[in-house]
Amino acid sequence: MKVSTIANELNSLAYHGRGIIIGKSADGTKAVTAYFIMGRSGNSRNRVFVAEGDAMRTKAYDESKMIDPHLIIYYPVRVLGNKTIVTNGDQTDTIYDLMDKQMTFEQALRTREFEDDAPNFTPRISGIIRREKDDMNFAMSILKSAEGDDRSCERFTYAYSNPIAGRAKFIHTYNGDGNPLPSFEGEPKTLELPNVDIDALTDLIWTNLNEDNKVSLFVRYIDIATGETETRIVNKNI
Q1: Cα 7 to chain centroid, rounded
Q2: Phi-psi map region of 41: left, alpha, beta (phi>0 left; psi -120 to 50 alpha)
Q3: Beta bridge partners of 77
Q4: Residue 236 domain-assigned?
Q5: Residue 177, domain CATH
Q6: Is residue 174 packed enough to be buried (19+ CB in 10 Å), middle (13-18) or exposed (0-12)?
Q7: Do β-strands 135-146 and 167-172 pair in parallel, antiparallel, or remain unpaired?
Q8: Based on the structure, what is the number of domains in the chain?
Q9: Quick one: CA dihedral 84, 189, 177, 11, positive or negative?
Q10: Could you tell me the mean pLDDT of each successive run of 10 residues in the chain, 238 residues long?
Q11: Order of strands, edge to edge, in the sheet holding 214-223?
């Protein structure tokens, strides 16, 4: 299995779109997650991340320049008991609401498809972290059109039990720039998680995202034993 550094992986593309990283810290004590957004259009770039309790939402940086909030404004992060949900769209609410009604992560996402932004049909990427019995497990999902055909939806879920310390999985929406944008392909990528504090990791990710296209970044450390969290948010628009 190929293991990449965060710097090398983020520098491999100028445009990842939106990305989710989930893993276990090198010392094995924390669940680690990060979510970033990038943008090419003025509407996509006109955003910031805003903390709202233990959740996080997107917000227009300049309300007067917001053209269409559809697919732009949503909650990327919500917490349900011992579960932290991270996604690139309003399917965060779908997962939260249906899991609260005893459905599974995968069952909740069967009610959703890729985004309706032809011709890209942007994949919906989602992740969930569970703290259980002094350990963690997590899952990732991608819902994508089949070869760009919006009549067909492909659904993939990847589950990770007792994940290896110092490793993370990384999934993102696009395999680079283009028109239409090419969707992510294959399994989530494996990254090395360095043994650093949350500020150093936040800086590492932010620094290595393409300067022209990066918009916002969210990083959270969750203490596996206690559930206590540390969160960092970085916005290009400040």
Answers
A1: 17
A2: beta
A3: 56, 86
A4: no
A5: 3.60.20.20
A6: buried
A7: unpaired
A8: 1
A9: positive
A10: 95 96 98 97 94 97 90 96 98 98 98 97 98 93 96 98 97 93 97 98 98 98 97 96
A11: 3-4, 189-192, 167-172, 18-24, 30-38, 214-223, 229-235
CB 4 within 8 Å of CB 178: no
What is the distance between the alpha carbons of residues 155 and 118, in angstroms, rounded to a whole number? 18
Alpha-carbon distance of 5 to 166, in angstroms, equals 11
Q: Does 151 fall in a domain? A: yes
Q: How far apart are CA 232 and CA 237, in angstroms?
A: 15
Within-domain flag for 191? yes
Q: Is residue 156 part of a domain?
A: yes
Task: Please report the beta strands in the chain, taking only residues with DSSP state E, as ranges in sequence order.
Answer: 3-4, 18-24, 30-38, 47-52, 55-60, 77-80, 83-87, 124-132, 135-146, 149-161, 167-172, 189-192, 214-223, 229-235
Counted residue by residue, the chain has a size of 238
In terms of residue numbers, what domain contains 207? 3-223
